[in-house]
Amino acid sequence: MRRLLLAATGVVATASALLTTAPSATAAPDATPGVPDRYLHQQITWKPCFPDRLPDGASPGSERLECGSFSAPRNWGRPDEKVDIVVAVSRLRPAKGEPRGSVLTNPGGPGGPGRTLPLVFLQQNRAKLLDNMEIVGIDPRGTGESSNVSCGGGSEIGAGLDPRDRSQGNIDLMLDSAALAAKFCQTKSGELGRYVTTEQTVKDLDLLRHLLGREKVSYVGYSGGSWMGAYYATYFPNRVDKFVLDSNTEFTTTWQKSFAWQPKGFERRFREDFLPWVARYDGVYHLGTTGEAVRQTYERVRAKLAEQPVDLGQGTTMSAPLLDDTLASGIYGKTAFPDLADALAQLNTLVERPATEQARAAAAAVRQALPRLTRAALPGVLPVSADAFPATFYNITCNDTPTTATRQSLIRDTERSGRKYPLIGWRKISDVCAFWKRPDVHMPTPDGKGVPPVLMVQSVNDPATPMEGAKRAHEAFANSRMLTVTAEGDHGIYSAGNACVDEVVEKYLVDGVVPERDLSCAGTPLPEPKQAGAREKRSVAPEAANPLLLHAQLRDLIGPMPR
């Protein structure tokens, strides 16, 4: 079982103020103090990402995706040290004509590699965006095909411990495991780890803007990508064109305080959206006729798994913590509800009727569903095997902003949140950042002053970046506009099949129409249960509209891409 990470560019203009802290909005547009020419004068060599054949499941037009890379200083504070990193990027240009501008993208995490993200907009047929703009995918420093950091397997330390077990021995194990994980990640990440921060990354992005030949860039960032977008706007306000921040962290505070909303957000999504939906289809899943009855079934299954984990075959064991992880993963997007409910029903059969033919069939069904369910949460819950992703997540969240957590406060705070929000409220006790030796990083707090209007998109029942934190960020970030999606809980909204949201976003992003005030759109309906006997194919599921799920599926199908 893996540790749960709850998240989630005419005339060539020169890069502005890459080495300063937060420049004023009146900084000279061609100012490049201290940036060595060897960075400014390099060129990205673009080549087809798929030179031989398109991956199965990729949409027509994917052959236009081009891959490349550029060099950036390992430490933007000392670029003359001549110690470089590689940043891997992609671009998807219009099929006809020249693009009107460049849209940088980020799938969140933080730490999620994003070079396949442009293909999501192609998969979702966002024609207005694709016909007018150049969409740029980026593997941020630390992850993907960019220069990597590593935890050396340390992110898995203590991953199988049950956070609900509050015996002193287990509490000590969880805290000691988090401390050891921090040590592994910092040791294995080496000197680069000190410079895997949002501050360093946004300076990479501004160099990319310069290399793309853009005086200004637009941006679409999901989840942890909202944090990055807000900081880019803070450091380089005069480079901001149209920025869309979707599924928002509370980027005007610390990572610690932003993540503190998650236990409430996951519990609300679980109880208000998923459980009543399962109860509505009790004739299909037989888990209970009310949301509370379904929750009690989950608690009963969990208790039995806590007593005795179940072998699902082929080296996979279902434990109580893995059940929690699976549920938390599956509620990120409503398209996973049918698979999630079916898995819970199969597990109910497995623990109630062990050693039967029905139990053996149930074990196989759950084992086959697990990759889909954990993948659905990318990048908030991390099921992928790539070590660079968790390492980048920890380096960014632990380096960026200070934490006040101690061993005693973690015990106290998770006892309180666990009793109130049991789905994930107990697990913050394994906070790696509490044991992190943080480098000397001091970033300005984003406040929106001097920044052109940004558009924030937010669903009311988002589990990973809850509405409470997003609303606070909106109120503290001057001149922002919020598009609230009511009767909705998906994490990742734009380009997910909501016509109202897509229209508002693209009027802003492509046409340049800034909403005069905050707006709202209604959410999309919850799905129907899957038909019995439906087969899972290794392709991008047409009903999987969530952009983060599509991105995860495409990454799985495509694999490594050329620099």
Write structural notes for this entry.
- The chain has a single domain (14-563), classed as Rossmann fold, CATH 3.40.50.1820.
- The chain contains 18 helices and twelve strands.
- The chain has helices spanning 37-40, 117-123, 127-132, 168-193, 198-211, 224-235, 255-259, 262-280, 282-285, 291-307, 320-330, 337-352, 357-375, 388-400, 407-420, 467-476, 499-509, 547-558; strands at 47-48, 66-73, 84-92, 101-106, 133-139, 217-222, 240-246, 310-313, 316-318, 455-459, 481-486, 519-522.
- The strands form two sheets. Strands 1-2-3-5-4-6-7-10-11-12 form a ten-stranded mixed sheet, sandwiched between helices. It has a two-stranded antiparallel ribbon with strand order 8-9.
- Strand 8 (310-313) and strand 9 (316-318) form a beta hairpin.
- Helix 10 packs across helix 12 (337-352).
- GO terms for molecular function: hydrolase activity.
- This is Alpha/beta hydrolase fold.
- It comes from Streptoalloteichus tenebrarius (strain ATCC 17920 / DSM 40477 / JCM 4838 / CBS 697.72 / NBRC 16177 / NCIMB 11028 / NRRL B-12390 / A12253. 1 / ISP 5477) (Streptomyces tenebrarius).
- Keywords: Hydrolase, Signal.
